[in-house]
């Protein structure tokens, strides 16, 4: 049994505004207002070009956004004030649906916002959203008729901006909107300006490395979700412009209805965790995956501020596993090619992405992706592996071969004085090898600690002792070269800092150092030339 006894008022408190502006910065707020302009223009199927002008005055701390998207009818003015009010159809391929964006944006940015709008040839109306109005629980708001602005235009002026804007703020906002609207701005009928300067798109799908062994690959299919069609593209590849910092432009990029939602995403939701892709690291900073989703707004897996992915959304859940598969594939390729990126990745900047039309997301299998080139083992790892067992029983050899590895690494650098550095390192490796030989190979039978200490004080005494035990191992030519390079090293350190060290000298001296290490200590090097 139930008896209705009354109706109660569930009108929301204006405190709802405070709850929806948390963590809302100027970049996100300005984008919400730009989104609104684009949606109004798109839904009207307007023939005229759309012009959106964003003006930021850091002296007066004022932001003004104007557009010619079509204006707002007087009877629709409540849409720009009431949370959840929207004239947008969620079945349309638009970028606004929640009915909170423009309200949240103006409240987040400013305590005093004036909105002026004119629909066609109708009068111009003005609405003000102020902190005083927000403090009053009455939801009614005054509408003013004012002097006309241009037909089909809207002006939003926000004063006394809550967060201080600076020159850096403007640069950050410019970079942000250049990226967010890069695909939308390919429509030549849309003109977006910031302080009078036309925004140039910042693309993330133009930097692929087209190495024929591991080219970028795209997959394109249409899915039915909730009875509606959603188009999905997933493109993966290596980027020609990689970096060493580990914080570069790599990871996952997701666009919804051509609007960038997340940039350079590297979170567990897209595989960046142990056991999957791994944690972000410079060795995987060449990998990028771009996801493009188009369809009804209600099927877009974005959050209400369009600044992140709704990981629980059914569309994201549908494609998440395959996003991880593709990013995992190309991060593996990045790890393998990263040591040789300057020759195997960076030069291949020309080419086209091969898109494969598929009928089901399950068709994205590893076999459909390019084979990853095998990892070319780096010199330090090669030398370490070759001497692994010897280093366990004779750990002192590690210092000897690591000096040579360091010298080899410097060869590929562009230092002007690299040959001098290499010569000093190689000479040091020979001195270390000689002293280790006397200490660990012959000391027990012939030397006391005091005797060795005295020998080690003078390099020529070290050479003199080694000659006693190197007959048949090092010939007179070897000793002539040892003495020559030692004198050259002394000149560099103690006399002539400008002494010339030729590439041919470095090649010969490297071979000699490796021969000494091998003959006296048993150290192994790959492709050793005697």
TrEMBL record:
InterPro entries: HATPase_C_sf
SUPFAM superfamilies xrefs: ATPase domain of HSP90 chaperone/DNA topoisomerase II/histidine kinase
Superkingdom of origin: Bacteria
Gene3D superfamilies with a match to the protein in the record: Histidine kinase-like ATPase, C-terminal domain
Protein name (database record): GHKL domain protein
Organism: Leptospira interrogans str. UI 12621
